[in-house]
Amino acid sequence: MPAGTMERVLIIGTGLIGASTGLALRSAGFAGRIDGWDVSSLERTAAAQMGAIDAAAASAEEALAAASKADVIVLAVPVLAIKDWMQRLAPVVGSGQLITDVGSTKLEITELGRSLFSAADTAAFLPGHPMAGKESGGAMLAEARLFNGAMWLFTPSTSESSPMEKEWRDWVGFFGARTLDMDAARHDELCAWVSHLPQMLSTALAALLEDKFGDAPEIGAIGARALRETTRLGASPYSMWRDVAMTNTGPIADTLFALEQRLAHVRENLRTPELRDEFALANRFRQRR
């Protein structure tokens, strides 16, 4: 495990990603204290019972008090709540501490971090995004190996790296994750294509089928694997994706428009050789991955 000075961690948001982070820390050998807070008493109780956190704060005020003593604070809540917590934390944290997050969009978070945590006497801030998860959330689905083999992206808000940031990066590596630094705007553009567009596509397809067929038993009987795979992400709750859509609206809208054009192209060429070309391009993409 990494050798360093990290002894206390606070996880704000003890759902799937937050609780999995706590479990991953323990699995990787972290012997310090892990506190947690979640607006849902069920989530924070579940996280404590499974050992993802040692103790749960009873209120947001208690969480802020714990933050003042923590070496690392992990913000594992939706993006808009991350931004809110960043502003709450700024007055109570200081030099030597690190705030990091796991938000699915990064530009707004990174820009806010740069404005709040750039002075010498402030905590360090490291925006992060583990490319891991499940279509459903909640602490009960958390697991220590969730990040094993996953890419954990960082979009640093400053060019300087604090000792605690370096140590946190080491721990992420001990979770089994690979890491990659990139520009925040580039992150949001790429994630719009490879993560947010598939979600919106699956959601739209599942909603369309529900509108068209409802609970018709024949659909389940004949849809089989193809239907399950293409609509799997349609099980994701709106609460998980609302903030993504609100903070990455432009790039997501661009991808949806491009897909609309591509689908129109397919529709117009159902009886021409260009449909074969479309399949060839799709096959090539899949073969490379």
What does this protein look like?
With 289 residues, this protein is an alpha/beta fold. It contains 11 helices and 9 strands. The chain has a 6-stranded parallel sheet, with helices on both faces. The longest helix has 30 residues, at 184-213. The model has no long low-confidence stretch (mean pLDDT 95).
How does the SSE layout of this entry go?
Elements: E1 8-12, H1 16-27, E2 33-37, H2 41-49, E3 55-56, H3 60-67, E4 72-75, H4 79-89, E5 98-101, H5 107-116, E6 124-126, E7 128-130, E8 151-154, H6 163-174, E9 178-181, H7 184-213, H8 217-231, H9 238-247, H10 249-268, H11 274-287
Parallel strand pairs: 1-2, 1-4, 2-3, 4-5, 5-6, 8-9
Antiparallel strand pairs: 7-8
**Main sheet characteristics:** 6 strands, parallel
For the record, the count of structural domains works out to 2
- The quaternary structure here is single chain
Strand order of the largest sheet: 3-2-1-4-5-6
CATH T-level topology of the largest domain: Rossmann fold
- The helix content is 40-55%
Computed CA radius of gyration, to the nearest angstrom: 21 Å
CATH class of the largest domain: Alpha Beta
How many DSSP E strands? Answer: 9
Nearest-integer average pLDDT: 95
- Low-pLDDT stretches are none
Shape: globular
Determine the CATH superfamily of the largest domain: NAD(P)-binding Rossmann-like Domain
User: What is the succession of H and E elements?
Assistant: EHEHEHEHEHEEEHEHHHHH
The SS-based structural class is alpha/beta
